[in-house]
Specification:
Number of helices: 22
Largest sheet: 5 strands, mixed
Number of domains: 2
Shape: elongated
Amino acid sequence: MLSKFPHLRQDLLASIVVFLVAVPLCVGVAVASGVPAEVGLVTGIVGGLVTGLMRGSSLQVSGPAAGMTVLVFEAVSEFGVATLGVIVLFAGLLQLAMGFLGIGRWFRAISVSVVEGMLCGIGLVIIAGQLYAAAGMRAPETGIGKIVGLPGAFADALGSTEALASLAIGAGTVAVVVLWKKTPKGVQALPGALAAVILATVASSAFSLPVATVQVEGLLGVVQPPGAEAFGELVSPAIWGTIVAFALIASAESLFSAAAVDRLHNGPRTEYNKEMIAQGAGNTVCGLLGALPLTAVIVRSSANVNAGAKTKASRVLHGVWLLLFAAAMPWALALIPLPALAGILVHAGWKLIPFRQTAALWRGHRGEALILVVTAVSIVAVNMFEGVLIGLALSVVKTAWQASHAKLEVIDKGAGPIQVYLSGNATFLRLPRILDTLEALPEDRPVELDLSGVHHLDHACRTALENWAERHGAAGTSPVRVTGDGKTARPENEEPATAV
């Protein structure tokens, strides 16, 4: 047995650690997404038993992610819980298609600033929304509404004993998670999030605090394959936008997580297209079961690596433990206070905000920092999908602007020809400025245009320069000489220089 599975002991121990990390996150993400708690466990089980068995990234762990919470909540609010399965199903099929077509590796080309901005925006919305949940209040629907309404909600909470008790449980949960890393290493064998939930549960029960707890329906009760009515929603164009958003954002999170996990270990590297197929297969199954979408999750994945996992067996076994827990101990979920789960997600949302990366970008690449901030603000102000599109569009515009950077230098010594040096990337985006400078040169002086420093000269710019060179110059003045451009035609009697 051990000869066939030489790393079984390490993988078994790692799977238990990942299971303990996954339980509170699966339940918390489900509750925050507006679905029963067990639905999050179903997604975690599929992430272990389906995605975990497939090739791609051997040590990456998949399940419901805090980064998808905002998008899922919006989808459930707009289309209903019954339609969620259809959305996840078709998002999974789209991921499968992208994986088989070899598109997975292209996600590595997405601007890091857009991804960090997306995570920042998600984190802000999660924190704002879960602060209401921690106080036992209903949060406004929009991101801006959540943030603007916080002062009023806090004032209302101060006048309510129930809200203050609920806030105390939520704040205590956050404090335990933050301070858990300062405890002895032996104590840290129990993950901080799970320890915080256990302590919150014990405290609320011991002191009979008036706080809401998780509503339990049973594992079989929440597994609801989408019916004919749910599939009928596919005639709405709006649902297809949500499906595309699910597929693209879940894929981006998973593949960027894979790149991060690869830096944590020395084992086999991620096969991106196969990882996309694995994620697609998992989401297809989640959709058929009416569960939450799954993505690779960096918190669980890093816990898996740090716990000493060597093969995919650890993530598969974590799915087995989740299944046994959901089937044998559903009553345990009913004891968990909702503000404790809100506290777990507030901490998760805080971890999503890239404070250090933003500061580093601002010091070295302010344009990228601006893209990050605009993406985050757009997600808060509008919604997840449109915010990401705004960030991508801004990134493309910035790249195009940088790619078209060209420098034009004019040297006039008062006698002899005027020397003009063009360098960089001469494209149509900079053509008006280039022509303005060239057309301002005196007509009665010879001009030498040196293009040896040009890295790229697009068709529009080349044509415009040729037309300018043909027109420029008074009668009796030497024609413009263009040097350093091998593609511009030369008269037969000229050597390296070109008379245009």
